[in-house]
Amino acid sequence: MEKGGIIKHDLNKSPKTGNWRYVRPEVDASKCIGCTTCVLPCPDASIEMRRRSKEEKKISPKLAQEKEIADIDYEYCKGCGVCAQVCPMKAIVMKK
Ligand code: SF4
Ligand code: SF4
């Protein structure tokens, strides 16, 4: 492959790797500040940012003005824990 080349990726054709997982990352809406630090290091591109739900805004009114929260796609997340390690707010907890 040419150096610096871009690999096109079609998520719909990817194997669903979520069933490899034995620990599950969960985002704590009371701690996530929507900084996106966890998005790029995820080896499975399983984290996207989304708008906070009304319920999540109620959990922490202080963070309600933070429009976005990390959202994990459990169909592909393999539970490696990288996201929990890099989160500056310790907002991702690995649960069995
Ligand atoms: S546990 Fe690993 S694969 Fe799952 S969302 Fe976090 S970084 Fe991605
Ligand atoms: S989970 Fe942590 S690293 Fe990811 S967006 Fe929220 S605060 Fe940032």
Could you walk me through the main structural features you see in this protein, from its secondary elements to its overall organization?
It is a single chain. The termini are far apart. This protein has a single domain, classed as 2-Layer Sandwich (Alpha-Beta Plaits), CATH 3.30.70.20. Strands 1-4 form a two-stranded antiparallel ribbon. By secondary structure, the chain is an alpha+beta fold. Helix content is 11%, strand content 19%. Bound molecules: iron/sulfur cluster (2 copies). One iron/sulfur cluster binds next to α2.
**Total of helices:** 2
Helicity, as a percent range: 10-25%
Order of helices and strands: EEHEHE
What's the count of strands?
4
Q: Gyration radius, to the nearest Å?
A: 15 Å
Residue runs with pLDDT of under 50 for 5 or more positions: none
Which structural class best describes the helix and strand composition? alpha+beta
Percentage of β-strand residues: 15-25%
**Biggest sheet architecture:** 2 strands, antiparallel
> What's the CATH topology name?
Alpha-Beta Plaits
Number of domains: 1
Assign the CATH architecture: 2-Layer Sandwich
What gross morphology would you assign?
globular
Which ligands occur here? iron/sulfur cluster
Mean pLDDT: 90
CATH class: Alpha Beta
Distance between the termini: 39 Å
Q: Which strand order does the major sheet show?
A: 1-4
